[in-house]
Amino acid sequence: MGTGEQSPADGSGSTPDGVRAGVAIHGTTNCPVVAASTVHDGPITGVNWTHAGDTHTEEFRARDPDAVDRAEGVPEAASVVDLGDERVYRYDRPREGECACRIIEELDCPIADARAEDGVLLLTLHLPNLQRLRDVVSALDGTAERVEVRYLVQGAARGDGVSDRTLVDRGRLTDRQCEVLRTAYRMGYFERPRDANARDVADALDIAPSTFAEHLAAAQRKLLEETLAAN
User: What count of Cα atoms within 13 Å lies in the side-chain half-sphere of residue 85?
Assistant: First the structure.
């Protein structure tokens, strides 16, 4: 295109309404970088990979070389380049076994960024819609203990054609607040009419109704702050 202008991938000329999602995968198996992150001080970053035949080659950046050497379940990694405050490593292994990143790629979903910290695989994905995100989470079922959507940036065009983006950062919620929200949602507390009242949800959580109300109010306040802060 000689004008230098770029058209949307669908050629429609409309503003895309896809999502940017931060996904945390807990307890994933067959991931040496995640294994190394359990003994590494700080995140392991710059994770990327390539496939050639039956060989999977992976590269990553680490600030603590000793941690990489003593990590269990990590193939022998070769130091590629020293960048001063961190070092780039590369290792090869067979393309076998379940791998969270490969599962996502097989859904035709490129991974924008990958890192690992404290045994958790952290991925950034750009997806066309929320249903695609649900597909990713569903595909990972059985390969990890838990999949958490830590933040979500959703783009949607308003009537004037200006993009209206909302950021929801679930990382602001405590584990207990997330559990309360999930249980209340699953039991139909937010339906109209409600399928469960506050006491029903509190009993399911084995807490007092007043405690349920406190957790719910705190979680809702945080989510509203995220949603309405820019308004």
Answer: 4
Looking at residue 106, its amino acid is E
Asked if 200 and 187 touch (Cβ cutoff 8 Å), the reply is yes
- In degrees, rounded to 5, the angle at the alpha carbon of residue 47 between the alpha carbons of residues 43 and 48 is 175
Residue-wise pLDDT for 72-127, tens only, equals: 766 777 778 888 888 888 888 777 667 888 889 889 999 999 999 888 999 999 99
CB 197 within 8 A of CB 188: no
What is d(CA 68, CA 36) in angstroms, rounded to the nearest whole number?
6
Where are the chain's structural domains?
21-168, 173-228
Measured CA to CA, the distance from residue 109 to residue 10 in angstroms comes to 16
The pLDDT score that the predictor gives to residue 169 is 62
Residue 174 tokens read as 């405590």
Calpha distance 122→46 (Å, rounded): 11
Cut 0.85: pTM above it: no
| pLDDT, tens only, 44-58 | 888 988 878 788 888
CATH placement of domain 173-228: 1.10.10
